[in-house]
Amino acid sequence: MLHRGKRILEFWDRSKELNVKNKKYGNFASKLLHILLKNDIGAEDITSKSLINGNKNISASIIAKEDGIFAGLQEFKLMNNDLNIQALKKDGENIKAGQILIKISGSAIKILERERTYLNLLQRMSGIATLTNSLSKQLKNAKLAATRKTLWGSIDKKAVSIGKGLTHRMGLSDGIIVKDNHLEAMDYDFRKVLGLTKNKSKYIEIEVENKKQALDAAEAIKNINKKTKGKNLFAIMLDNIRPKEITSIIKELKKRKLYDYVLLEASGNINPSNFMEYDDCGVDVISMGYITNSAKALNLSQEIVK
């Protein structure tokens, strides 16, 4: 059996896929950015077209207005591959207010009509990366992971990974999570659920809401793991369970020699005000929708250089 730390990363981290050179991610990012840009420009940027000669070139700088973690450079380059770009900061680097992050030059109209869209991109990704990094650095035992509560899908998850968080699964086809409604439909028959899912994905996670369900799920996982000779990786999502009860659950899992068969995730109503309570209770991962659905955009601006 893989070392627990390696299993955690294999189960919850897809950061290596989040590169524009990866066809799936590159195509998604390109299409989404095209839609966002087209939505903003509409038929045309009538202000810029009215005032600027179509042949005019300009230079501009993107500047940090506050401290944080920089993110979104690859995606910025993807949507501006017809302009000259000089990046002064890399994804994941600390930035300070007043620093120039990117210098850009080329068509004045293209730079002006794209400004809001690519600033939105950089501000959102940098905001998510900054929040994720800040929270991750506080954890001593568990790792911080995203959820599917995203606005821009895998682009948001890329920002999480830049901030040193784990991505979790990328979508419904990337691993199995059996949620409460699935289990309700299956009469909470964990063995039957595992039997039906074990050949569909290597990664299988079951959501539970109390100690009995957690122990029943772990027993079923232990049995199926022996039959499949460890070809699957299993996790239990402890949903909306308070840290004190989670500690009790993990203690019992260890007592029954079930702990080594499962990875453990705490999830549900976790935010910056209470997430540290879960760090000492023994879970491997703390997942927070907050880092993608409530992160504040990092303040960046663009200035024309004369």
Main attributes?
2 domains, single chain, 42% helix, alpha/beta, TIM Barrel, 306 residues, six-stranded parallel β-sheet, Aldehyde Oxidoreductase, domain 3, four-stranded antiparallel β-sheet
What order do the helices and strands come in, and which of them pair?
Layout: H1 4-12, H2 23-41, H3 46-51, E1 57-64, E2 68-69, H4 73-79, E3 84-87, E4 94-95, E5 100-107, H5 108-136, E6 143-145, H6 154-162, E7 176-178, H7 180-185, H8 190-197, E8 203-208, H9 211-228, E9 233-239, H10 243-255, E10 263-267, E11 285-287, H11 290-293, E12 300-305
Parallel strand pairs: 6-11, 7-8, 8-9, 9-10, 10-11
Antiparallel strand pairs: 1-5, 1-12, 2-4, 3-5
Measured by DSSP, the beta-strand proportion falls in 15-25%
Fraction in helix = 40-55%
Low-confidence stretches: none
- Tell me about the biggest sheet? 6 strands, parallel
Shape descriptor reads: elongated
CATH class of the largest domain: Alpha Beta
CATH architecture of the largest domain: Alpha-Beta Barrel
Number of helices: 11
Structure, described:
The longest helix is centred in the middle third of the chain and has 29 residues, at 108-136. Helices cover 42% and strands 19% of the residues. A six-stranded parallel β-sheet has the order 6-11-10-9-8-7, sandwiched between helices. A four-stranded antiparallel β-sheet has the order 3-5-1-12, covered by helices on one side. By secondary structure, the chain is an alpha/beta fold. The radius of gyration is 23 Å and the shape is elongated. It folds into two domains: 4-15 and 134-293, Alpha-Beta Barrel (TIM Barrel), CATH 3.20.20.70; 17-130 and 296-305, Aldehyde Oxidoreductase, domain 3. 38% of the residues are buried.
